[in-house]
Amino acid sequence: MHADSKAPSVRFFDGFSLPIRKTRVCIAMKHDELSRREFVRTATAGAGAIASLAGGAGLALADAADKPAALGGTPAHQGAWASWPQWDQAWEPQILEVLRSGVWSPAGNDEGPVGDFEKAYAQALGANDCVATSSGTAALLTALAAVGVEAGDEVIVSPYTFIATYNAVLAHHALPVFADTDPATLTMDPASIESRITDRTRAIIPVHIYGMPCDMDAINTIAQKHNLAVVEDACQAWLAEYKGKKCGTLGDLGCFSFQNSKHIPSGEGGAVTGVKQPLLDRARSYHDCGRAFGAYEGRGNFSRGLNYRMTHYQGAMLHQQIAKLISDTKRRQENGDRLTAGLREIPGIEPVRLPENSRAVWHLYAFRYNPEAFSGMPRIKFMRALNREGVPCSSGYAQQYFDGLLDEALNSRGFQRLFSAERVKSYRDSLHELKGNKQVCETTVAVFQTLLLGTERDVDDIVEAVRRIQAHSASLA
Ligand SMILES: Cc1ncc(COP(=O)(O)O)c(C=O)c1O
């Protein structure tokens, strides 16, 4: 596997800025880094042994080993984390083959890398079909069109998500109405949905944020009761599972992103998946300029639609990564379980609760931070200290509904025609009722997926870093 160690920095497009320490290193170098760390560990252990022989002076040495890097100690994690994205030389011939074929687009042709990827990804998910798109945003736009979201409709959305989820609804000239976030799960709180349904509500978009499945049974039950469509935003949830089924097969349609930072990346790219063939046929038609397709074949003419097709270059990249996605996911899940077990033992750190019988895939691994258990240390100081320990972290999403995007839409000519002043006022007021989401935005700390691609010792370093910061929080706060 290769990673571009010359690239200036990792950029994440789903709303995170990950500080600060260098994370981009060629995977091939990792072994050297590990053995160097091994050396440091051995040296530290040796110092501890000498310390215990030497009585009081020994205690001082042991203390030094435990000291947080922010207080001059040695960072809990030495060396680099896995770099992202990664690629394999073995993938190159197929990309070159696309180039030399001169057939770079799947337009009018079911055969080729895009079709191969669609079949393989649908199979990996247990979906009926997969419609590959040019991005996750394009997948959301396509899915919303396929379930019939139109101008003036309302769509219930999770507020704790990348901004593209909001924007896809706005682009259809519909109103994104936010359900609250459950602070225990970081996903849509089903108990907050029904009070937000109006006679204009057409669909619900649960977001499996950071790769953590939403409580889909509860959401689907409400949707069925009110005759609403469910479009899963599974853009961060490749292979995540809920009660034995994969995310992207649990609602009416599911949407994925294959953007550069994602677990299966092709630069840009996306997919619409599901098990309901007529909706999938409508999605295929919509993403292909509205061409007649499947259940829509009989019409012969174009329907409304846009060009959101994926290129064969992207298809060739993605088809070759499915095996890697499966093995990387297993590694992240094993390491995620270990991290949860370790962090759970630390007072004031609350790992996320997943729905019963579900598996997250950890695009980010998030936990909630309670400063009270850390001598009142504000989250930002905790994060800085964690970063100094060699553990880059992010505070996740903020309360983006106050950031101006919604005002821009609501004040626009089109939205003013579509929504009454009374509705806009009650909508604005409702943004202040998102208490659970506010809490989540203010207390979450998350580490990026690459930190779960290392060894068990790497994971233990993260736990050790948090433990140390807590032990010395009185001096750090
Ligand atoms: C939750 C979520 N929804 C939607 C998107 C949009 O996907 P894309 O960036 O591929 O358009 C992303 C991607 O970053 C995402 O993380």
Could you please describe the fold and organization of this structure?
- It is a single chain.
- With 477 residues, the chain is of the alpha/beta class.
- It has two domains: 27-86 and 323-397 and 441-476, Aspartate Aminotransferase, domain 1; 89-321, Type I PLP-dependent aspartate aminotransferase-like (Major domain) (Aspartate Aminotransferase, domain 2), CATH 3.40.640.10.
- Helix content is 40%, strand content 11%.
- The chain is built from 17 helices and 13 strands.
- The protein has helices spanning 30-53, 56-66, 92-101, 113-125, 136-146, 163-171, 216-225, 277-287, 312-319, 322-344, 379-388, 405-410, 413-418, 421-430, 435-443, 456-471, 473-476, and strands at 129-133, 154-157, 175-178, 201-205, 229-233, 241-242, 245-246, 253-257, 270-274, 349-351, 358-359, 364-369, 444-448.
- The strands form three sheets. A seven-stranded mixed sheet has the order 1-9-8-5-4-2-3, with helices on both faces. A three-stranded antiparallel sheet has the order 7-6-11, with no helix packed on it.
- α4 (113-125) packs across α9 and α5 crosses α8 (277-287).
- The protein is globular and about 75 Å long.
- The two termini are 41 Å apart.
- It binds pyridoxal-5'-phosphate.
- Pyridoxal-5'-phosphate binds at residues 13-14, 135-137, 161-162, 164-165, 207, 233, 235-236, 257, 259, 270.
